[in-house]
């Protein structure tokens, strides 16, 4: 039975949400994983069931459990967090697909470069207190100007996973 989502404004709950990345490095032998600890956002569900919104990620909060690597990822070689402190995913439209899937059409902005991004999310739960979505999609980092690749160690796409918990926004 499909989950029903009420219309109105929804606020991302950063304490119950996660945005993570993983990328194979060292010629595909090692997977580097990290989580952004600074996330925020809002969304709106219209009467016709479509949704729009924005997810904002603090680029300087990527944590891979390795300070030297984290500092390098925040540098101009990668996210350039000093000049581009936010990574955004602007949802231009989202609508229910088959079952509890949601087809998301958005725009991802990294390092000031914006590209269209599609994703399929799963509506995990929805009730009077909130709703939770889960998604996973891939990003080609070079399309966003993230081209650092010493000795060809970092080929292939980066996988982004997110669990996003939204609660009803105050009127």
Task: Give the key terms.
171 residues; mainly beta; Lipocalin; eight-stranded antiparallel β-barrel; 11 strands; 54% strand
Q: Please, could you describe this protein's structure?
A:
By secondary structure, this protein is mainly beta. It has a single domain (8-168), classed as Beta Barrel (Lipocalin), CATH 2.40.128. It has one helix spanning 67-74; strands at 8-12, 18-25, 30-36, 39-45, 51-58, 62-63, 86-96, 101-110, 113-126, 130-139, 158-168. Strands 1-4-5-7-8-9-10-11 form an eight-stranded antiparallel β-barrel. The two termini are 30 Å apart. The mean pLDDT is 88.
Task: Briefly say what this structure is.
This protein is mainly β and 171 residues long. It is built from one helix and eleven strands, in the order ββββββαβββββ.
